Amino acid sequence: MNILVWHVHGSWLTSFLQGPHTYLLPVTPDRGPDGLGRARTWQWPASARELTPRELRESDIDLIVLQRPHEAGLAHEWTGRRPGRDVPAVYVEHNSPHASAVDTRHPLADRTDIPVVHVTHFNRLMWDNGRAPTTVVEHGIIDPGPLWTGEERRAAVVVNEPVRRGRTTGTDLLPGFAEAAPLDVFGMRTEGLAAHLGIPDERCRTRDLPQTELHPAMARCRVYLHPVRWTSLGLSLLEAMFLGMPVVALDTTEIREAVPEDAGVVSNRPEVLADALRHFLGDPEHARTTGERARAAARARYGAQRFLDDWERLMKEVTR
Predict the structure, then answer these.
(1) How far, in Å, CA of 59 to CA of 51, rounded?
(2) What percentage of the chain exceeds 90 in pLDDT?
(3) Is 220 exposed, middle or buried (0-12, 13-18, 19+ CB in 10 A)?
(4) Contact, 249 vs 225, CB < 8 A?
(5) Phi-psi category of 306—alpha, beta or left, where left has phi over 0 and alpha has psi -120 to 50?
(6) Whole-number pLDDT of residue 47
(7) How much is the mean pLDDT over the chain?
(8) Which of 44, 34, 47 lies closest to 7 in space, CA to CA?
(9) Residue 15 contacts by C-beta under 8 Å, 6 or more apart in sequence?
């Protein structure tokens, strides 16, 4: 099939593009949010093709994968076809409802012609999906291999824009955790984080690395810390587990589903998580065995092939 999909979430899309189809990626001269085209920091197959809006109008399209509310109108404008009516479409909802899990109505809640595909069961439960048909396709991770060495007595954290996102990503919790373990915070726009939080630089190093360097750098840290209060299930958490890292995480959203009891420590008590960080830093053998169990659990549930198989079944149903 020819599948129109925007480059919105690079990590998720990297797994999605491993399927057997041709993927049409909109590209604009400014490579802005609606026309990023192919990624610069991920290895994508040749089947992921850049097309301008004019080229899309002349292209055969078998399925449209929407990920943002305005993309339905954009697809109609650029292709001349209405998603869900003139061409089959699905809407991938990557996020948990931000404002209120009780009152947040999904943008497609009044439509019955475009299925909403949630990435976690938690998200499907929390959104008010209205009349929209829904399903869940859990994340799939391309296995980076068991890279964990744990040679550095530090905790890895992965978060983009931690200053702006604040309490959502648990940024305010980092000073307390930094007392228990020195932190390596990876992600975009992390510069100045230590000064912003009043943490000594050595206790809170920040690094914005290309994707090819990120996993080995994470894997040198003894433990992975996930202080996020309220986002969807982070791909960085699952990637850390694939690397063979033990996990210390807040017990929010879908975390409990993803992290078995023997794969790390999950709690909503910061003091429990701080003690776990100290324990893993002080006992590398315990960190190693816990990380091995985390890797086994992640591979069993979040493998790339299971993800692609789930999507194949869904796409056949939608385009039947």
Answers:
(1) 9
(2) 94
(3) middle
(4) yes
(5) alpha
(6) 97
(7) 96
(8) 34
(9) 139, 140, 141, 142, 304, 307, 308
